[in-house]
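Task card 7
Instruction: Convert sequence to structure tokens.
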Amino acid sequence: MVDIEKVLKNIVKKGKVKIGVKETKTAIDNGSAQIIIISNNCPYSQNINKLAKKKSVPVYKYKSNSIDLGYTCGKTFAVSAFAVLDDAGSNILNITKKG
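Output:
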């Protein structure tokens, strides 16, 4: 089984991401987002899901809250959502379909 936390840490460290709801929405709008990761307590999840669906961008719902997602991303603050622009070869799209 794949450790999603490890994959997300690797993407944030080696890949290219846009962290935060505003940045995530912008990445969806301009077509640069490969996949969206949202915490289970993201207050804008409905809005982000709707926008992502319109642009055919997959959304992965992280199993924990925004504080845990921030910690997983190596940040000292809560992260409700982030867009993956470059997955650094992690193949996150395939991994999240299975998980």
